[in-house]
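Figure S4 source data
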Amino acid sequence: MARPSALTLSTKAADLLSAALRHARDAEHLLDPAAGYTSPDQAYHLAGYGPECARKATVSLRWLDQAHGTASRPPPLT
């Protein structure tokens, strides 16, 4: 079996990177007054998942991304 190079992305890693970007875009949309509805609390919550998904995408052993959960997320706004 060929060993993957450093530039090879698995389907799971590509999906996680896509999710990270989607979370950031969705959070940005929730802060845009032109969208007709804003929710800073939901935007903050959603934006917190972006870095988490990006970190999980960089893990080479897929089972490790399951262990890396939301423990490193910032606390909610009060």
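Figure S5 source data
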Amino acid sequence: MNEQTNSSEPVDQEQTDNKENENDDQGGTKSNEVQYELLFQLDSIPPEVGTSISIVQDEKLYTAWAEIFGFDSVPAIDFETEEALFVTAYSDGCGRELEYIDKEEETLIIKLNYHENIRKKDEIACTDIALPNTYVVKMEKTDTKQGKLIDINRTSYEDDSIVQDKLQ
């Protein structure tokens, strides 16, 4: 499980337990999971960003985003074979974790879910609202053109993604 942190220090967690043909919530299989490493999970969203999915495919732009998000250090990404993903969303008081990243044709699917220890409860009661969450991910190059964010307790956000490949 990826741990949540308020720090802008890198999270040393790699998503290595992706399983082909694992059942998804719709009864199908997730055979197109994207290999990724969670670099940061923050309890904040810069005011100029809002809720978004941004795929960053350029080092200069990545450095600019790192400055906006206030990273203490900037983890290296090889933009020849990898790209960065910034996901910002609000959650209720139970918080969220990044459950998986999947690819369907040219669409990147990002699923946020309650933390595993909360999902195991029979009844979930979350009282706080609008807590900010930021997920910064290093992932294999996906060549996706759009994104879809699925939050366990909300409607999907579609077409909120921006593929950002050059700093102008």
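Residues 1-6, 12-29, 155-160, 164-168 have pLDDT under 50 and may be disordered. The chain has two helices and twelve strands.
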